[in-house]
Amino acid sequence: MSFRRLLVCLATLILWSPRLFSQNKNTELFDEGWRFHLGGSLGAEEPGFSDSGWRSVDLPHDWSMEDVKGTKSPFQPDAISQVGGGFSTGGTGWYRKTFKLPEGEKNKIYILQFDGVYMNADIWMNGEHLGNHPYGYTGFWYDITKQINAGGLNTVALEVKNEGQNSRWYSGSGIYRHVWLKTLDPIHIVPWGTHITTTEISESAARVHIRIPIINENQEPADIQVITRILDSAGNESGKTQTILHLESGAGKEINENQILKDPRLWSCETPRLYTAVTEIFQNGSMVNSETTSFGIRSILFDAKNGFQLNGKRVKLKGGCFHNDNGPLGSKAYDRAEQRKVELLKASGFNAIRCSHNPPSPAFLLACDQLGVLVIDESFDTWNYGKNPYDYHLYFKEWWKKDIESMVLRDRNHPAIIMWSIGNEIKESGNPEGVETARALKSLIKSLDSTRPVTAAVNGLGPDKDPFFAVLDVGGYNYAVDNDHIGKNSYESDHLNFPERIMVGTESYALDAFGNWMEVNDHPWVIGDFVWTGFDYIGEASIGWLGYDQFASFYPWNLAYCGDMDICGWKRPQSYYRDVLWKKDQLSIFVKPPIPSFKTNPKKETWSRWNWVDVVPEWNWKGYENKPLEVTVYSSCEQVELFLNGISLGIQPTNRSTKYMATYRVAYHAGELKAIGYNGHDQTPIQKASLYTAGLTSKIQLTADRMHLKTTGQDLSYITVELTDSKAHVNPTVQNLVHFEISGDAKIIGVGNANPMSLESSQLPERKTWKGRCLVIIQSGHQKGKIVLKAKSAGIGESDITLYTD
User: Fold this and answer.
1) Distance of alpha carbon 411 from alpha carbon 427, whole angstroms
2) Which residues share a beta bridge with 290?
3) How far is CA 312 from CA 271, 300, 375, 492, in A?
4) Distance of CA 771 to the CA centre of its chain
5) Of 171, 324, 334, 174, residue with least CA distance to 750
6) What does the pLDDT look like over 314-345, one tens digit per residue?
7) Enclosing H/E stretch for 9
């Protein structure tokens, strides 16, 4: 890609990764001290407008997760979003921030960057309109140097419009990702221009190629020295280059550097080792600009014979799709919330995530880099033909190039990303127009980054889609395997016709987990499977129970209820089943309730299969004594034995022929239901699992995922609240209201319980338990000290937990 072309791309829209730039000098996190108003506000773009009556908010912010005025709930039956948006409320919102620049800053370039605003944002600086950005999932920035009042007050204003049905799922509303203010010297690295690739890799050495575009916006020519040092994860210098450049006024040049690193430490899922490139620009002996970029050294290779190879080793993608929101926080993209999501998925065996159906936050990608999780970075859910009246199809023709450039230039240095996806279930994928559009998108991506293959998720598989597949480097198959419909297997039939096609299951039903994973195991050309979904989400309400119907009113359902992990991050039964497919010596017990957990939908379509079987990890069935219940054991041990109160109910095999399940009919008696897993013939116990009948609830148990928080004002701790009996057994039958109080420099920013029909506020300091538990999310302040959370519930008592900020 030419330097001129790069400048054109960047000048129009392109942004940079905030997590990387947060390590660079002269970059200010611009999240605190905003004013917000929900509704129209005539003249709010003007600096002199009085916003004293507006609410103070810090970012990230999502007004759709706030309680609707006059209620204690963010979900309303008459919300325009309806079932697709989980009955959340959109509208128009205004944001304003007034600030001063540090004194002494002269002859500087000022950049204001937004990581994500949903959606249709209009931005003003000191009353001058900077522009409009329609897409809610790509970042954008403006050079505000000409609008800045260097010696006085400055006001930035945004009008954000989330009106109408513009998404098939919950999007959130507002400035839901970070905002940054960057101060640059006139001689600087072009924002988001640095591109790092590893072209040759062996055990003894790696060739690292670094492209760095630099521009001189001074009125005079300049002679500069550019030094780039590569540091390993311990901070040791692994390589260094120096370049002398002469830049005319207003001109730019691109440095192309090669560094040979000895004994490279490769990035992989097991060992996600990162390097850092530190580039510094010197003029007359003084440093005028610096940039720090994180990257990894790894090789990727795709072919139908060997599948996907990472560093020369075949890797099968154990994948999950996910949407943008963070459960009780709505779409607020706190760094810790994004990191926790990746941690939980990896702990449950996932090594890959598909970002459906839009680019994620930079913090999410950094977490994948640090934790060793592979990523399909996806661009759009629609192209020229919409799925909702006011979705992205209205803007695609004008904006797709800018948004593709934004995604690729922002994300291309992340080692976690192994594929770019140009779309999901695109309506025109079965006709020539769609094929030509796919070629254009792929061509643009390859011009920006030629190191990764391009894919897309295709549904409604058939011969009409083959020309579309031919454009792709990797064919993305949505719902290619169906265990319940014999003969429906596009993987095998398509392989006979297209033996060189590389295939990946970009979406699959949890119900087909066994069949899908066997296809991945058995066929090298099928490189992985991505379940819909890895994490539950708001919107597409009830598709995991009542089925998918965009035009039905399933209120009060507001969650999809289809994730391996629920909205609070707790494992659901299907996640435990996936454990036995992916891991050795796994064991879990589930019981089919004597009556369905929820009312069913008599009009549910047979193809709408995002649910899991109705089972629960419970042994509290008062009133059903001596009545038979269906008990299923998921196991990757060779055999399992089930016991009720110490009495054996028999040994059964658990292997591929049984789909790693064993089913029993058990007459209910209170006590302990225990399973033991064995391998071999000596029946040595390998794994154990138990369900207990919980007694009278007598205690509130609080468990924090992190006891120590940083004083950043944005660090989070997730505290699980469980109602237990005297033996610490959670009682799944209680739905008590729990009240919370907090002391110290911290606040409660979210509460939840994973009940897909709960209409409770996610912001009030109280929540009913569901299945005996709920969740509280604590946000740190800026002061060191203790944080004490107290929880109390009528008839049970009070409990507390102490956290620390340091």
Assistant:
1) 27
2) 280
3) 15, 8, 18, 26
4) 26
5) 334
6) 999 999 999 999 999 999 999 999 999 999 99
7) helix 3-12
How far apart (Å, rounded) are the C-alpha atoms in residues 224 and 244? Answer: 6
Question: What is the SS3 string spanning 256-296?
Answer: EEEEEEECCCCECCCCECCEEEEEEEEECCEEEEEEEEEEC
434 DSSP β-pair partners: none
Tell me what the mean pLDDT of segment 31-58 comes to.
Answer: 97
Q: How many CB atoms lie within 10 A of CB 667?
A: 12
The whole-number pLDDT of residue 164 equals 84
- Classify 455 as helix, strand or coil: strand
**Measured between alpha carbons, how far is 310 from 691 in angstroms, rounded to an integer?**
40
Q: Which conformational region is residue 43 in: left (phi greater than 0), alpha (psi within -120 to 50 degrees), or beta?
A: left
Beta-carbon neighbour count of residue 127 at 10 Å?
A: 14
CA torsion sign for 50, 56, 57, 58 is positive
Distance CA 210, CA 216 (A): 20
How do beta strands 474-478 and 503-508 pair?
parallel
The token pair that represents 356 in the structure block: 């459906």
Considering only CA atoms, which of 120, 123, 117, 116 is closest in space to residue 142? 123
Mean pLDDT, residues 506-515 taken together: 96
Q: How confident is the model at residue 23 (pLDDT cuts 50, 70, 90)?
A: very low
Phi, psi of 94 (to 5 degrees): -120, 140
Q: Report the distance separating Cα 278 and Cα 584, nearest Å.
A: 42
Cα–Cα distance, 799 to 793 (Å, whole number):
9
Amino acid at 743: S
- The pLDDT, as a whole number, for residue 24 is 59
343's CB contacts (< 8 A; 6+ apart) are 367, 371
pLDDT at 776 over 60: yes
C-beta separation of 384 from 393 below 8 A: yes
Through-space distance between the first and last CA atoms of the chain, rounded to whole angstroms: 46
d(CA 165, CA 87): 11
Which tokens in the block code for residue 123? Answer: 């931005």
Distance separating alpha carbons of residues 345 and 456, to the nearest angstrom: 23
DSSP state letter for 396: H
| Strand 766-768 versus strand 737-743 pairing type | antiparallel
Mean pLDDT on 545-569: 94
Ordered structural domains, the chain, with CATH? 31-177 (2.60.120.260), 189-295 (2.60.40.10), 314-540 (3.20.20.80), 587-617+621-692 (2.60.40.10), 699-805 (2.60.40.10)
Are 88 and 81 in contact, with CB atoms under 8 Å apart?
Answer: yes
3-state SS class at 575: helix
Spatial distance between the Cα atoms of 628 and 668, rounded to a whole number of angstroms: 6
What does the pLDDT read at residue 535?
97
Query: In sequence order, which residues have a C-beta less than 8 Å from that of residue 29 and are 6 or more positions away?
Result: 18, 22, 178, 179, 180
Residue 203 pLDDT class (50, 70, 90 cuts): confident
**Token pair belonging to 336:** 């810790």
CA nearest 100: which of 50, 148, 52, 57? 148
Rounded CA separation 295/194 (Å):
11
Stretch 416-432: mean pLDDT? 97
Tokens matching residue 765: 């300091």
pLDDT tops 90 at residue 151: no
66 torsion bin: left (phi>0), alpha (psi -120 to 50), beta (else): beta
